[in-house]
Amino acid sequence: MKIQRRIFLAVAVLSVAVSACGGGSSSSAVVPKVIIDSDYNTMSDDGQLGVMAAQLQAQGKLKVMGISVVSGNQWLKQGVADALKSVERLGVEDRIGVYAGANHAFNHDFATIQRELAAGAGGDGYLGAWNGPEPLSDADLKPSPDGFATHTKVQAKSAVDFIVDTVKANPKEVTILAIGPLTNIAMAARRNPEIVPLIKQIIYMGGAVDVAGNTTKLAEFNWWFDPEAAQEVVRLPIPQVVVPLDVTDTVLLDKTVYDRIAHPAKPTAVTDVFQKLNGYGFDGKNGFETNPSYTQNIWDTLTLAYLLDPAYATSTVQRYVDVLAKPGAADNGRSVGYAEQPAGPALQKMTVVKTFDNKRFFELYVDLLTRPVPVTLAP
């Protein structure tokens, strides 16, 4: 009996130890803490990621520390307005704060951009915020289809201070989803370099490693908008994952998936705005409601799926990634992935995602975008 009792006790102790190490129930798993650093928009890729992240937090699978906004797709003021309405629409405004960050790139103004285009940069013509005038007051802002936020205010703390303070308070625990230009992150590292070893990882939507760019023939938009910031951040000694155009160009929203979100059995405030903003494409005419063969990129949303489970990436490569910062040159903002460490500045070896499990991803995508709102977040 004594031998049996000792065996029982040994098994019990081993079971407790395994559970403590994460081998037990899912309740013991560590919930990822995330900063969403974004050039926010209402319901294109950034806005969709905001919805998905809030729903994952409601499931206890994610902890969104806050949303830091930077100019990119839109000028900062418009991006902040859209982010405020987004969290209010979701009913999470008291739990997910919005922080205003950098309004301009370090060294990439409109005159410089014009020189690049004249030098033969080419591309799809999308310049993000530079496609329109900078809003000077609230009167210049455009409302979401369901209006502006009515009671949600931007946080008093700047986005840079928010990043610094959050990382310091949660050392080695915070992942930054960098889904816009990298100005906020570069500024945070410049001002407080002590945070660099405290960041758990950065997951980017950015770059075009082995494919052509989009804004220019050589550069992807997010890293092109502020190449100097992008170069600084990718060179930081932090674990980094790149979700570049290489993979996002292969994961396209088609009409079948669009219809599941835009016309669900139980519409929500989110699905209504999704339909109004995505149904007719970027040109307002040739979209899902009029052209069954139309497809649309959903770039940033892949980063969230990868964070949730890296197995969404069906193939990756290890590369030493760098960004060219050559203001005025045609290849300004170009990303390069070296198989071996090149001569010059020390680069970080990072994971570059090449292909995705599209079918599995779109099941997650549709599920999270069609869940009931408002979202009830756990304490």
From TrEMBL:
InterPro entries linked: Inosine/uridine_hydrolase_dom, IUNH, Ribo_hydro-like
Signal peptide: 1-20
GO molecular function, one term: purine nucleosidase activity
Top-level taxonomic group: Bacteria
Pfam families: IU_nuc_hydro
Entry GO terms, CC: cytosol
Inosine/uridine-preferring nucleoside hydrolase domain: residues covered: 34-363
GO biological process, alphabetically ordered: purine nucleoside catabolic process
Keywords from the named record: Glycosidase, Hydrolase, Signal
Protein's name in the database: Nucleoside hydrolase
Source species: Rhodoferax koreensis
